[in-house]
């Protein structure tokens, strides 16, 4: 953890606890599949291949899905300059800098560690934010890399992905009798479906709880690194307002990657759904930045910078 990025022991504890609980769930899930499917080789090969694909290629998958591409310094000199300055201040390895040709204003970080990280911003974000606001957003994303919570979220999400795929696999695989449905086959099918659904639900809740806290931790770290929490608050307010005006149908593709975004691709502030959200409510994030601004003695109030 770089000295200049705010260390968050509570985030570290939460990441460790989440991985421990998901690990227990993972062992139980694999054991149940081996017993039910009676083929440990099939289970091991399937899960091993999926894990390698998600962990080692998560950055490429995310960039491809979000139409992002690495950009040279000559193409976006100001963007590269901000990333260079923040990495120098934080003593952080320089990530790959990418841009996504999307009008939706947003940013995300991905990768399996500080030495293999990608920070991507959309053209819509670059067009709308002032330099100080962009610096706050990039500091937020780089703090995810420094805290290593990007890798943790990637690993943690893996179990839910497998559980969801097993449910689909169950419907089409010949392992359940190739169309012949006797009583034993139906019982095995129901058991696999039930175990997979339970694992998916539990992993979903654990990951969402961690994801909401990691966003608050990234906001804190970015505000302390830049010394301008009001600029980050202004960026949050601006980006959330712009996304709220985008039709929901245009946000659906992006919503699959909400856990990685600076601000979720949601058309409105959720009600009861906030308990299942990847991000804390905007008001909570702004309130925290307001407290930091007061502590730092910053003149500008959060949300009014820029």
What is the N-to-C succession of helices and strands? Answer: HHEHEEEHHHHHHH
- The percentage of residues in β strands lies in 5-15%
Continuous helix count: 10
Largest sheet descriptor? 4 strands, mixed
Total beta-strand segments: 4
Unreliable spans: 300-306
Portion of residues within helices: 55-70%
Strand order of the largest sheet: 1-2-4-3
Mean pLDDT over the residues? 79
Q: How many discrete structural domains? A: 1
Distance between the termini: 30 Å
Broad structural category: alpha+beta
* Shape call: elongated
Supply Rg. 21 Å
Account of the 3D structure:
Helix content is 65%, strand content 6%. By secondary structure, it is an alpha+beta fold. The protein has one domain (9-296). A hairpin with a 5-residue loop joins strand 3 and strand 4. The longest helix is centred in the last third of the chain and has 44 residues, at 183-226. The protein is elongated and about 65 Å long. The two termini are 30 Å apart.
